[in-house]
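Workshop exercise sheet. Pairs work together: one partner reads the sequence aloud, the other fills in the structure field after running the prediction. Swap roles for the next sheet.
Pair: D.N. / O.F.
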Amino acid sequence: MTTLIETDEHKALRAAVTAFAKAHTEADGLWQAAAKLGYIGVNLPEAYGGGGGGITELSLVLEELGAAGNPLLMMIVSPAICGTVIARFGTDAQKREWLPALADGSRLMAFGITEPDAGSNSHRITTTARRDGTDWLLTGRKVFVSGVDIADATLIVGRTEDARTGSLKPCLFMVPRDAPGFSRRKIDMELDGAEKQFELVLDDVRLPAEALVGDEDAGLLQLFAGLNPERIMTAAFAIGMGRYALDKAVAYARDRTVWKTPIGAHQAIAHPLAQAHIDLELARLMMQKAAQLYDAGDDAGAGEAANMAKYAAGEACVKAVDQAVHTLGGNGLTREFGLARLITASRVARIAPVSREMILNYVSHQTLGLPKSY
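Structure field:
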């Protein structure tokens, strides 16, 4: 059973993160400052230096950082995807090596799944791992991988051959940044984010047996254990961004006077802003439901809710940013007000980590039981 009324502890956490975010307006040093207070590793096990919470708490942190104008994209990747997968499926040695460092912010981990020809379709991934004695040799390409240049390792989704069927199955490998044969190229993006995007090439990257995370025969289960938090955290990222834009627009509409009253008194301005607020609140409810289902161990229920939350948040964010820019008119496109950059950034939540169309496919097939067209 889920409850969507925030506990006193969650309200206190939200207030603390809000105060922290308002006091740290510069992106430089924000990760380490947040980690020092336990925010980065709030979802990781206490036994390994984390806060002992879940995706519920981590998504709350990211939302409030975004609402203050400083979202940390790598929170989606390092503690939410990689930290969760290692905490759930890693060996004791992997947990000891990585979880304390991910929690205290001293190390980062990136995540590579998307490929040039496969997108995020795990069934078409061509990055393959083959055994060579006790080692693995990993070969393939990945694109749109965030923060590889600042990450100590990248959790790569590859495929290994099933000895029983001969078919390929997904598996997860930790690839150190300086591994021989592991190269990266920065992708020239219009999106001006702190975290850069990279194309990766893996050319017979030799990895020891302990680089494999989890059970070789439980690849899909382990993969989706990371992808559901990714969707929930992307929703938090989008909701925070939408709230930030909306707050800017509301403040402007309260003060900006062209005729006799502030422009916010006119329903043509007020109603679209109110609708944007409603849409963001509805998206947050689904995000909270998805996070609570995931933290309760209901992976199936969380899968549906996480996809819905990501869809709703992406749509709400794009609309909120668009309306905010429109409310400010020409000022909405100036660097002074900081909204124009969000026009591009807000689209990310519609596109990544899975497109809105693939979410609609998921709901139509998995929830409604409609036949597939592919």
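Discussion prompt: The chain has a mean pLDDT of 93. What would you look at next?
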